Amino acid sequence: MTPSHSEKITDSEFKNLASTALDKIEGELERLFESTDFDVDLERQASVLSISFPNKTVIVINLQTPLHELWVAAKEGGFHFRWSGSKKSPLWLDTKTGEEFFTAVSRYISTQGGVQFKV
Questions:
Q1: Using CA atoms, how far apart are residues 10 and 41, in angstroms rounded to an integer?
Q2: pTM of the full predicted structure?
Q3: Lower CB count within 10 Å: N or C terminus of the chain?
Q4: Could you tell me the fold of the domain covering 11-112?
């Protein structure tokens, strides 16, 4: 489902863009943690971000550099988001549904965390 206007990127550019996406999620979770009583454990090792909730569920987001994809494992299932944007306008789309990455991750976190969350 990659749009024809998708900009080609190198593996190094992918890693930078994908890391920025993970940084954005971490930052929003930290802001939520600081402004509410919402509690979540974040662990980031290399290209893997794990989000552990008090209800013992986990969301794992990891980079798949050769495919230029972000893979997400959540209670709803496993999902692959392929690079589909440009360096100025990053975009990751679900390879099956076309759903945008941040929209989907916001829903997964909201559902598993029992809190309104938006990246």
A1: 32
A2: 0.91
A3: N
A4: Metal Transport, Frataxin; Chain A (3.30.920)
